[in-house]
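Hi everyone,

Forwarding the result from last night's run.
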Amino acid sequence: MASERRSRSICQVPSPMRGTGRRALAVVTMVEGMYHAPPMRGRLLPVRWRVVGVAMTVALWACRPASDGAGRDPRPGTVDTDSSEQVGGPAPPVAVFPDDGGPLAPALTRVGERGEGLGERLAEAAESCANCHAEVVAQWQSSAHAAASFDNPLYRVSVERFRLAQGNEASRMCAGCHDIALLVDGAMDEPVKPDDPRAHAGVSCMVCHGIVDVRPDGNGSFDLHGDDPAIPLRDDPASLRAHRARMAGASLQTAGLCGTCHRSFLSNETGHDHHIPGADDYGAWRRSIYAGSAVDRVDAVSAPRGCADCHMPRVAAPLGDSAAEDGLVRSHRFPGAHTWLAAMQGDEAQRRASEEMLKKAATLRVSALRRAGGEVVLPAADARVAPGEELTLEVVIRNVGVGHRFPGGTLDAVDAWIEVTVRDAHGDTIGSAGERWKEGVADDSLHRLHATVLDEEGRPVLGRAIERFRAPGYD
């Protein structure tokens, strides 16, 4: 999905620069998470950013769900109309609201016959799975899925603050995607003890591989079976087939499974006055050429691609794995984001995997240079600048390798930004912007790619204080 974002940077060339008519080269680097440009030299110039436009494709689309034999959606909450009164033309669209989450609401997760201790079995699954799937489990242990629950200090602070403000039951919404082992045992309704193994389970093997049906609503809108994984016997092809059938159902092969959690929203059930949309990478993908949309740009993708095609590439399995084909397995690192988590854990392999994806995500180009009087110089590298002159750099950021928005995920928590380095004809740095942010220093010259959510007084909410979210501010 190729999309563009255009920004301007106004740089003032420092007066100590000798001579006139010197050329300046602007090197623009986009940074996501822990992916930084090399350190830059030179004094920091006052730089002011402002967004001047975003090129986008606008489409009017409708999505009709599967219907029953009479053309009606069978799910409760459907708003339908009687097409018998229509004279010619297609039937009117059907609006489908999220299914009732049932006893686990506001999570939309549903569980079949679970038996006793399902949460404990979910928490212990990885240890058992590693006996045959050593490589896959090792990769998963480095992933954000493995650190999705209360053992992640950032998540724990956020969810505990939310529970304190809105009540424990409201936090089931979080648990549908972060704490399934706690949710299915009803443990989210009580204080969560740090030493509870279920609070360290994350999104374990038996969660994704135990999903038997999915719905597009988000907030954990999947059906989970509580069956035994049917661990196969050695040299018993029949038991192996039964295991594969149990653990690799039809839903596992679809992007819809990822969409059950990579789409989220807040509602009355979470203590908010109205519906507030959250992260929606699944919806963005559904509207893209990667999902086969004929209304999106088609210059970057030759064939549809799903979530696993990018986030679960085939990689070598040096530890050995019974699921390997020609020595390769689908990566369970799920690279592409959370570089901060990998850095915090000291996991260089995980960090590198995500960095390699991010390097291919987008391109940056200084498309033009604009002088204070309005003159436009193309290309910008040919500009001759005078000491003290104020210049505006027009920078185009183009999404060329991401099947949804870039950045994606929870945009209010994303830390992606642009660094600008201006060098003279001798290669000496004469100015920069956004350089100090990676050191944790406030930087007025910074241009970040993120979103802001407002609280009840219209103030930006800093941090993942979702109990204070009232409305999206800007994006």
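The mean pLDDT is 81.

Cheers,
N.
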